[in-house]
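Subject: Sanity check before I submit

Could someone independently write out the C-alpha cells for this chain? I want to compare against mine line by line before I put it in a report. The sequence has 626 residues.
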Amino acid sequence: MGHQTLNNRINGQKSRQQADQDRQLLSPEQELALVDWVDLCAITAKPLDITGVQTMAFELSGSVPGVNWHLQFQAHHPEILASKPSGLDPKHTQNFNPTNIKNYFELLRSVYTDHPNIPPQHIWNMDEKGIQLGGGQKQSNEYFHLHSLRQSKFYRIQSDNLKLITVIECILPHGLSVPPTFILAAGPVPSPEGLDTEFGAVATSPNGWTDNELGAKWFINTFIPFALSHRVNDSPILLFVDGHNSHETDEIQEIGYSMGIIIITFPSKCTHKLQPLDVNVFSSLGRKWSKHCNRRIYQNVVMDRYNVIQEYMTVRKKVFTPNLLRTSFETTGICPFNPEIFTDEDFAPAQSFSLAFRVPKSYPREVMTSSPAPSNFSDSSDSDIDVDLSNSDDASDPHTSQAPAPQSPIDWDTDPDDIDFEPPSPSPSPRPRPSPSSSLNLVPATLARSFSPNNPPFPFSSGHFTRSQSTKSSSPVPVSVALNRSRMPISLAEKESLIHHQDLKINLLEKALLQARAELGASNAHCTLMTQAASEAMTSLENQKCKTRRSVKTSACYITHPALCTQWETKKQEKAHSQREKTEKEAQKASEDAARKAQICSVFWVLSTGPTAAGGTYLLDRIAYT
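---
Independent answer below. Compare away.
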C-alpha cells in the first residue's frame, strides 16, 4: 500500500470499493440477507430464478434492478451458482419426511433384529421400468456445428415412436439380478434369437403395462424359482417393492406366506430416495438407452417389438454391473443397514409443506435491547456503559457512598454540549465523533458488560474531574485543596493520558455503533423479505386447507411376514365367508329371477288362449305391478 493511500485511510477517506458501495442498489447487509434467502429457497426445493431474485431486490431497495444486475450480484457473491435443478414431484417432496423415513427404518430394523443372519443374497428389490421405442423425448445434449450453419437450419434425426414397453427387473446387493421379463402391447409375441444372455419371459397386456395377473405370474414363475436357487441358508428372503396394487394381490400373499418370503413396501412416494433400482440403476439405464436409440437411428435401425428385446439386453449388460448394484443398496441404507444415511439436507424440501415457517439461519432472533446511552458519563448507574472515574475513599465504601442523582436519558446525537462535563484541553489529533443517527442508540451487551465498575475499561487516574484547571497558577495551592484529592490540579501528562483513553473509548463506541447499524440494516432487510414470504405462506396455507384426495398408504408396511400368518388366515376366512355369502345371494337372486320369468311366461300362455283381451291386459298389469 502506498504512503498516500495509507495517509488517506488514516484520515478517514474511503477506498474505491467502499465508495462504490454507496452507489450500489443494495447495501452489503441487504445483499447478505438476500444471499441467505436464496439459499433457503434452494434448500426447500423452491429455488429463485433471475426474476425472483430481482423481485426480492426490488422489495429491499424500492428501485427496479437493471437487466444485468444479477450478474454483478453473482460477482459480489461467488458462492451463488446458477444451474438447472432436478424436478421433484410435490407428493414426493411432502412424503419424504423424517417421520415416514424413521418408521420405515424401524420396520427394517425389526426384521434384521429377528433374523440377524440374513445374507445379502436374500435381499431383493423389484420394480417395473417403462422404456419408449424412440428412446424418450427428454434430451438436452449439445451438438457441434459451424458458425456458418444457422441455428434455424440445424437439425438432428430423432424418432417419434412413443410406444411403451414394460420391463420387470429385480436385483440384489451381491451383484446378481433376475432375468428381466418384458410386457408388450397386445399383438404377436416375438421369439428373440441370437441372445447370449438369459431373459425371463415375454407377456402381453392391452396397453403394455403390468397388471395384477402378470405381477402374480412373474412372482410365481420367475422370481421364486430364481431366488430359491440362490438361497444360502434358512434365513427368510426379503423382497422390497413399491405400493402398486399388483404387488399385493391375494395370490402373491398366499405364495409368500407358504414360502416364508417377507415382502416389504416402501413408504408411498418415497421410492426416489429409498428404492435401489430408482436411485441409481434406472437413471443410468435411461440415459444409456436414449443414447443407444439415437445411435441406432443414425444406422437406419427402426425399433419395434421384434428387436427391442435384443437391443435392451445389449444396453442392460453395460449398466447392470455388480459395483452399481452394490452401490444402490448402500446409498439407500438397506444393505448394509444404515438408518442415518439421510441428512437434514435430504429432508429440507419437505419443509415446504410444514406448518412451521422456515427462515434463514441469519434471521434475527429476539434480542434484549438497552436504553439510550446518556451523554453524562459521570452517571454510571443509568448507563449501559459503566465507567467509574471516581476511586475516592468515599466511593469505595458502599455504606457511606451516596447514590448519584438520576438523570434523564439524553440522546448524545442530539446533545452536543453537556453542561455538567467539560473535557480537558483538546488534543492535537482530531477525535472522531459518532455519526448522527436518530433511529439507533444501542450499544451491544458484550461491550456494556465489559464496562463495569469492577472492571474499568481503561486505567484512568484516580479522581473525579469536573472542569479543567490551569497548572500555571501564580498563587500557592491552599492546604484544603492539597488535602482534597478531588480538587487537585492535574498535570499535562495526566491530561494527555485522559484524552488518549477518551479517544480509545470513542473509537470503541464508533465500532459498536457501526456493528449495530449493520445488524439493524440486516434485520430490516430480513423483515422486508419476511413480509413477502409471509404473504406467500398464508396463500399456501389457505390452499392446503382445501381437502384433496391423497393416497392412503403413506407408511411402509409388511405385505407378508411370519408374524402376520394368523392375521392372514383370519383375513382369508373372512374373505371366504364373504364370498360364500355373496355367492348365496347371487344364487337366490338368480332363482327369484327365473321364477318370475316362468310366471310371466305362464301368464302369456293363458292370455293367448283366454276369451277376452281386456281381462288379459288387466291381469298382465297386476303381475307387472307385483
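---
OP: Matches mine. For the report I'm noting this point. The chain has a mean pLDDT of 77.
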